[in-house]
Amino acid sequence: MTDFSERVKSIDISGIRKMFEAAGPNAINMGLGQPDFDTPENIKNAAIDALKKGYTGYTNNAGIDELRLAVADKLKRENGLNCGLKNVLITAGGSGALHAAIQCLIEDGEKVVFNNPGFVSYGSLAALAGGKPDPVALRPDLHLDIEALKEHFADKKTKVMVLNSPANPTGMVESQETIRAVVESAADYGVTVISDEVYEKFCYDGVGFVSAAKFGDNVITVNATSKTYAMTGWRIGYMAASEEIIGEAVKVQQYSLACPTSIAQYAALEAYTGDQSSIGVMKKEYEARRNLLIKGLHDLGIEVAMPQGAFYAFPKLDLDTIMKIVAADVIITPGKAFGSLGEGFARMSYATSQKNIIEALKRIEKVVN
Predict the structure, then answer these.
(1) DSSP character for 86?
(2) pLDDT by residue (tens digit) across 54-85?
(3) pLDDT mean across residues, the chain
(4) Are strands 158-164 and 333-334 parallel, antiparallel or unpaired?
(5) Which residue has the higher pLDDT, 11 or 306?
């Protein structure tokens, strides 16, 4: 029998993917965080142009300079960050950026702090790097608990904290004051913050977004084209940090990936420098879907907080009810997939049509009644 590494054996396949792959042909899939919009035409045309021009070879390990500069310009213009070409690494999606960041920072036994419930990758990436996942309970309102975080930062084994706002799976957006407090508290204890900002463009009801790196040099910014431009399958993301961190992270990428796909990089270049109107169209539709879903759940007597961002609702549902809903061909993800304190909740993605949401609510009604 093959003797596998403990690092791999200690983690499991994502509960999100399990539910997604189990979906039947008539199922309404609200389990996967994937926009149902197509990639905008100008971006697809840029990829076609790259193919015609023969841009099909390896690129620099850190990505093409044009795209790195475009990302740096975006971060300066939109997020108020002081970035240049050498502060940016182009990766295979946000996942690639998280992997490279954690691999270059974590030694065996060091802790990675993240919210509980929180995105499934953070703990697994920590374990794969030889570190220890250290989830921290959210407050009852599903926002970060600063005092609880400080207690974990004070542990000498704590090396990294992953901050995610707007958050997956809760849909909550942290205030500027909270994000500043996280960054400054982490700095006090020598902890590096990895700020996962992939949903930055999708904040609702006038809720503002702020990048964590505005408040300290101890921050690595992670983002991607996946959600913002409906480019999940193109697998392009980035990390932005000090030149020193980027230099170490490039080594991780060099030996695990070499470089992101050349054609997708040219498509991403158009995404960041071309027409941005598609973002507003998607945001408006997500907000309408959110309102439809939350009202429908409330009408069914299901307790759920109003999401402030991303495209997820996190209603209170017990596992038995969740599995009955899944059996009724509405695919949702048990909250426990996102951490022990996700038990008693479910994640529902509203990155699906209003027609599908209406039909899903009808099916859920038959279950709960």
Answers:
(1) G
(2) 999 999 999 999 999 999 999 999 999 999 99
(3) 96
(4) unpaired
(5) 306
Q: Are 350 and 315 in contact (CB under 8 A)?
A: no
Q: What single-letter amino acid sits at 263?
A: I
- Transcribe 299-358 into DSSP letters: HTT---PPP-BTTEE--B--HHHHHHHHHTTEE-EEGGGG-GGGTTBEEEE--S-HHHHH
d(CA 107, CA 111) in angstroms, rounded, equals: 9
Exposure string over 129-162, b if 16+ CB within 10 A, otherwise e? bebbbbbbebeeebbbbeebbbebbeeeebbbbb
- Which residues have a Cβ under 8 Å from the Cβ of 18 and sit 6 or more positions away? none
Separation of alpha carbons 178 and 209, rounded Å = 12
- Cβ(177)–Cβ(343) under 8 Å? no
Q: How far are the Cα atoms of 98, 121, 172, 200, 245 from residue 107, in angstroms, in the given order?
A: 15, 18, 31, 30, 15
- Against a cut of 0.85, is the pTM above it? yes
3-state helix, strand, coil in the chain (%, to 5): 45, 15, 40
